[in-house]
Write a sequence for this structure.
């Protein structure tokens, strides 16, 4: 229940977050976004609830760093996992909870905003538009249609739309006439100086390139492997991440890597291992064909890593010209940029410092949480 303290001008609220797999985040940009946002909202005195999938984390976990966790089942297939969990979350919210604001994340889950609007029409609904998921090549025709439907419902029926990039804000205005609020993804400030957890891969500081993403085709890892295979370098290529119902693509990547011992697949990593993989890399490479606003790229920037990125709008927005940029899908251009980074270590250091400063100022999680909380407050106090 909402209450307002005249003396301190503070609003306390119950906020429910729907659409993510759960927290703590094991992988995925949306999960990292929700984790960082929810913890900071809880620390600011709000009562925060995050819906989590039983197949993602231990369903016995009921609280994490002040955030309440509601564990619910899902149908664990590629097409039904997210939407079935969202459906159960909506039923739980409608019939069992008394929220002040419900915050949907991603276009697929947001297709069920209408359920909330039908059964709880006075409840304030926020939709964060993370990316146009239907561009992801793992989806079939029917799934892409449904994701577009979810985007339309989210933009048209949410009380407030948040976009994580200026590009998506512009798109929302042109496509749906909606005045979205720009609140970006963020980057955690992490200090990590050790490399002891990297021994199993025989990795040493400054002796490898790293790319961190889900192994799905639109992330462009196949372009990166093909470019790297053309190089004569002792620096290794470390690919961090796992498939997402994309076993065939993962097999394709490993076939491209062949018997090259310098191409290392680590699988999904998190916590201190992931921190060390960032902190000790020579450079970060982001070869995606499409992104909303890559959390992995922002995190690499926060570590002061020099970055090589494809020239897609989201990457260009993130780095603001302070990176080596190659033409999307152009293997030769990517190869040339890697060679340039190899032959100019001083340039790499300069790029890394500029990107670190940009991450700390433009993509600060404390500011992001503060702006999101203010948006909630404005919604629930508006007549």
């Amino acid at each position: 229940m909402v209450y307002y303290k005249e003396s301190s001008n503070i609003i306390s609220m119950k906020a429910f977050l729907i659409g993510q797999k759960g927290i703590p985040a094991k992988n995925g940009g949306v999960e990292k976004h929700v984790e960082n946002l929810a913890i900071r909202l809880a620390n600011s005195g709000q009562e925060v609830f995050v819906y989590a999938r039983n197949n993602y984390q231990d369903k016995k976990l009921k609280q994490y760093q002040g955030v309440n966790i509601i564990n619910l089942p899902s149908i664990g297939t590629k097409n039904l996992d997210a939407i079935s969990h969202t459906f159960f979350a909506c039923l739980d919210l409608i019939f069992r909870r008394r929220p002040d604001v419900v915050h949907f994340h991603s276009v697929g889950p947001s297709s069920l905003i209408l359920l909330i609007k039908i059964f709880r029409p006075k409840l304030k609904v926020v939709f964060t538009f993370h990316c146009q998921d239907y561009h992801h090549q793992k989806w079939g025709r029917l799934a892409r249609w449904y994701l577009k439907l979810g985007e339309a419902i989210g933009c048209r029926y949410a009380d407030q739309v948040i976009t994580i990039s200026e590009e998506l804000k512009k798109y929302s205005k042109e496509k749906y006439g909606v005045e979205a609020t720009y609140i970006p993804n963020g980057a955690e400030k992490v200090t990590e100086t050790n490399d002891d957890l990297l021994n199993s891969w025989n990795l040493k500081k400054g002796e490898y390139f790293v790319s961190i993403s889900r192994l799905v085709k639109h992330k462009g890892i196949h372009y990166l492997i093909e470019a790297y295979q053309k190089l004569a370098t002792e620096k290794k290529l470390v690919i961090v991440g796992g498939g997402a119902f994309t076993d065939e693509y993962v097999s394709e990547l490993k076939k491209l890597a062949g018997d090259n011992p310098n191409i290392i697949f680590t699988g999904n990593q998190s916590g201190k291992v992931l921190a060390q993989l960032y902190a000790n890399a020579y450079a970060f490479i982001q070869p995606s064909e499409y992104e909303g606003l890559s959390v992995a790229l922002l995190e690499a920037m926060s570590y002061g890593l020099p970055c090589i990125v494809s020239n897609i709008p989201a990457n260009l927005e993130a780095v603001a010209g302070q990176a080596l940029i190659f033409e999307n899908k152009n293997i030769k251009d990517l190869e040339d940029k890697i060679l340039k980074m190899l032959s100019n270590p001083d340039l790499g250091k300069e790029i890394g410092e500029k990107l670190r400063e940009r991450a700390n100022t433009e993509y600060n999680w404390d500011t992001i949480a503060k702006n999101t909380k203010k948006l909630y407050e404005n919604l629930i106090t508006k007549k």
Remarks:
- The radius of gyration is 21 Å.
